[in-house]
Structure formats: C-alpha cells, structure tokens
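# nightly structure sweep
# worker-07 picked up a monomer target from the shared queue
# config: single-sequence mode, recycle default, output format = structure tokens
# input follows
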Amino acid sequence: MHRCLGRNLCATLVFAALTGPPQATLAQAPRPNVLLIMADDLNDDMGTYGHPLAKTPNLDRLPARGVSLDRAYTQFPLYSPSRFSLLTGLRPDTTRVHDLQTDFRTILPDVVTLPQMFRRNGYFAARVGKIYHYGNPGQIGTSGLDDSASWDAFVNPRGIAKDEEDQLTNFTPARGLGSARAYHASPAVDEKHTDGKVATETIALLEHNKDRPFFIGAGFYRPHCPFIAPRKYFDLYPLERIAAPASSPDCGAPPAAWFTTPPHWGVSEQGQRESIRAYYVSISFLDANVGRILEALDACASWRGTGRSGRRESPDARGFSPASSCPGANRGCFRGAAFSVTIWKHHVQTRP
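# output follows
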C-alpha cells in the first residue's frame, strides 16, 4: 500500500455551496464536509433501481435520504474521459481526453479541479483509491493518472486480490484481466481485499480529520473485472437463479453499437451465467464496504463543532457517482453502459 500524508451536476452543486457566499464571508458560512464515493464499472443493478436479484441494502438506503437521478448519463462511455470530465466540470471535447493514457494536465495545465477548488478554500482534500483513472487491476497500488494538485493526502491500497489473480476462473484468457470474464471466490476476509482497504483507510481519514472541513474521495475498484470477492458473497446468488442475457447481434441493433461481436465474447451460456453472478457478487461486496463508510460517517455527524462554544451547523454532503458501465459493454452506448448511477445526499444538522 502506498500512502502520502459524479458527474457535472454533482460538481455544480458542490461549487454552488462553496462559492455562493462572497469570499469575505466564506469563513463564517456553513462549510459542508464532502464525501465523494466512486465505483468502477457499476451499472444500475441495484435494489433501488428495481433489480430483482441484486442485494445492495447500503446503496439502497442512500436515495431514501437524498436525491437519486434516474436520467443521468455518462459524459463519455469510457473510464478516463468520464472521470476527468466529472472532476474538472468540462466536457470531454474540451478536455480532449478520449483514451485511457492521456493526462489531462498535458492539455489543460491550469484547470482547477473539484477537489482543488476545495483545497483553495481551506478544506483538507484527500483520496483513497481510484478517483482519477488508472488501470484496474494492472495499476492497483499505484497513482496511475492521479492529479497531485488535487490532494493534500492520498492512499493507494493494494489488497490480496492482486495475489489471487492466478486462481481465477477465466472464460476469456486471450484478453487482459482488465476486460476479462473472470472471477474468483476468495477465502480472504473483506478487510484483506483492496476495496476493504479503501473502506478502512477512508474511515481513518474521516476520523483523523473530524475537526476540520474536508473533501474526501473514496474510490472503489469493484465491481470492475476480474470479479474477485470474498466467498460469502457468492453464497448470496444461487447460480440456478441467474439467466444468460438474451441480447444478440440479431436483436436489430446496428453493428456499431456492439463493443464486441458476438456481444457475449464467445463465452458459453454457463460461463455467461457464472460471470453475471460474479458481477452481482462484486456489487454486493462494494455495497458492504460502502456500508462501513456510511456507518462511520453517521457516527461523525457530531464531530464538527465539538469543543466549540455557541451554535454551529454541522453539515455533510455525500455524492455517489460511479464511472458507468455494464459487464462486457462499458464502451457501448446502450443504456446499461451509458447510464450513470448518481445519488446526492445532503444533510444539515444544527448542534449546540
């Protein structure tokens, strides 16, 4: 582990809260803490969106206490361009990032990012895991295309899944692991995995910075392939309940709509069912780790203002804005690939 101490709509909402008051009075204005949670390759296979199988109790509780956008779509159907767009507030045609290799600073060296704006206004800004783009799983444990100007601190977790890649059931061995239909039911506990470490380190940052305004990004790696998760989550999804998709090139969609032909990548029906189950498993594992962070965040609702006289507002804002895609089709333009799950939760609590 290396350590160093959503979307445009989400950015617009945060900037409005930050820059609304005149600069001279900003220090006296209520200052919301911000936790931005991002997930890699999460589509809308969640209970809150009506999915019949997905078990996501922690993600489902967010819309009940906030705003869930059901017509939000990614700015670009690829990881890096959409993340840079989110974090700069600029369209991909403006950033001119359309691939997975370009550092946006080589094109826009002076652009002010979302976390950078918070830093300039007295916030502690930090990230754990994948907020800006880097290869998953190849660059896990590194900073990838991270932006050093955005953060006061960062953590690059590396979990046991990196050591279990040779134990994968891989239905597409000719492909790199970053786009393979591959999975493994790991015997390791949650906290040993990279996403478990994301949750642990994010909670540590919340606790350590409880007495000052913060912008903290928690960047999860699941449900991106390869689908490695603790074995207990596989038990949530009996394989007999998983059906292979019916979509095929014969469904009437033009050839340009398919990222791969055939869209199931030549994987057998059994292999498709096992891959889909492993994707649901990865979502539930993500959900459990998000739940750990939300519990810690709820516990710290009274941290701000502790030990101070008078009355203070202790607000927090939670954004959930994953890079959108669906298994095997994250570079396509079908709704499953282009839809971006975006949940905004804002809570203000006044304390004596």
